[in-house]
Design a protein that fits this description.
With 236 residues, the protein is of the alpha+beta class. It has one domain: Nucleoside Triphosphate Pyrophosphohydrolase. It is built from six helices and 14 strands. The chain is globular, with a radius of gyration of 17 Å.
């Protein structure tokens, strides 16, 4: 069984109600932050609360659903042209940037870390208020696209998730901001340590993908989706 098959055969989350139509997946983005200041590269991971209906007690990358505010949030640097081109090939104009902003915002909300550049604090409302009050604006130029995966239709809670990558040196600080942290705990773990954690199958696959990408940065970017009754892996 391949890693792609595992994503389908062992889907996490509540099952779809029998006879009900497939749930439409919600757009989301998650961020893999790689730290390279030790003997081995380490990735930021966090443990989800046991009360969650989706992947409880699993270790994941910070991330979450796109919010309408992400379409108009300010930023310090824009996406690199080659990254924007990947998004634009599959999404409506502006949605790729909004997904990237969602990943940066959720990383702050869940892990208390700012992938950002210093900026004068400014007033704001909604989900970006706490972020910009830190004197920070999102550093979108730090991001690359790793993969995209859509939760299988047999699951009752579905996401169309873009997996993004950034180097930890682009963080404003390694110190977690106070009053942040929806994840129960966070840790920097090397890839072998990460594989030993209780992970969702798609997260495990993305860690393996990251290892391969360190060896070959030109490697095609996976697109995992379920079509015509089976997993149909493709590339972005």
């Amino acid at each position: 069984m391949t890693d792609a098959d595992a994503v389908i055969r062992r889907p996490e989350g509540p099952p779809r109600i029998p006879g009900a139509p497939a749930v439409r997946p919600k757009s989301a983005a998650t961020l893999m932050i790689i730290r390279r200041d030790g003997p081995k590269p380490r990735v930021l991971m966090g443990k989800r609360h046991g009360g969650h209906s989706f992947m409880p007690d699993r270790w994941v990358f910070p991330g979450g659903r796109i919010d309408r505010a992400d379409y108009r949030a300010p930023f310090a640097t824009d996406l690199k042209p080659e990254v924007a081109a990947v998004f634009d090939a599959h999404l409506k104009p502006g949605k790729g940037r909004a997904l990237a902003l969602a990943a940066v915002r959720e990383t702050f909300e869940e892990a208390g870390l700012l992938l950002a550049k210093a900026a004068p604090p400014r007033p704001a409302a909604g989900p970006w208020r706490a972020f910009v009050e830190q004197g920070a604006l999102a550093d979108l130029a730090a991001l690359d696209v790793v993969a995209r995966a859509i939760t299988p239709p047999m699951v009752g809670k579905r996401f169309d998730t873009w997996f993004l990558l950034a180097d930890a040196e682009r963080l404003m600080s390694f110190e977690r901001q106070p009053d942040c942290g929806e994840l129960e705990e966070i840790a920097w773990v090397d890839f072998d340590e990460a594989q030993a954690l209780p992970l969702p199958s798609v997260t495990r696959m993305m860690i393996k993908e990251s290892v391969e990408r360190t060896r070959d940065p030109s490697r095609p970017k996976p697109f995992l989706r379920f079509r015509a009754g089976a997993m149909r892996p493709a590339h972005l």
